[in-house]
Design goal:
This protein is α+β, with helices and mostly antiparallel strands. The protein contains 4 helices and 5 strands, in the order αβαββαββα. Bound molecules: iron/sulfur cluster (SF4) (2 copies).
């Protein structure tokens, strides 16, 4: 008997609180948000920040040392089919920006920058591919041969 009375009282309470809840919801809908919007701005990295690093493939001697030393396994040696030479390909998605590769390269083939790989500044560069470098090099060579005057 007591149980039934309690249940009935709860039902009445719920029915009364529903309009209250609706009122609160509507009020909150038109209220100013309590959070503060941070204005979008580009944060300049500090000097010495380890950013995107690229391989100067013209300098690279294909020793594979950078790939061997990379602790994140972010460097894969890619073979150029025409020359059979292998060049490093960096996956910035895996890279932890420790710069071990930069330190170990015997010919200083790595060019460093403070360019951030974060998506808020520029689109993420996923890979630096030696194949693309080789293709553009070939194209440049072909166009310069075509442009040079014939004897
Ligand atoms: S910076 Fe470090 S993690 Fe990134 S590619 Fe070089 S060695 Fe690998
Ligand atoms: S360590 Fe330097 S020279 Fe050797 S493969 Fe890497 S970029 Fe090329």
């Amino acid at each position: 008997m007591e149980e039934t009375r309690k249940r009935e009282a709860a039902k009445v309470n719920n029915a009364l609180s529903l309009p209250k809840l609706l009122g609160k919801t509507l009020k909150n809908l038109f209220k100013k948000p309590s959070t503060v919007m941070v204005p979008p701005r580009e944060i300049k990295p500090a000097e010495g920040y380890r950013g995107i690093h690229r391989v100067n493939y013209d300098k690279c001697i294909s020793c594979s040392l950078c790939a061997i030393e990379c602790p994140a396994l972010a460097i894969k040696m890619v073979t150029i089919p025409e020359t059979k030479k292998r060049y490093p390909e960096i996956d910035y998605g895996k890279c932890i920006f420790c710069y071990r590769c930069v330190e170990v390269c015997p010919v200083n083939a790595y060019e460093v920058s403070i360019e951030k790989p974060a998506p808020e500044t520029k689109p993420v560069i996923i890979k630096e591919t030696p194949l693309e470098w080789y293709k553009s090099k070939k194209t440049q060579q072909t166009s310069s041969t075509q442009q040079s005057p014939q004897k």
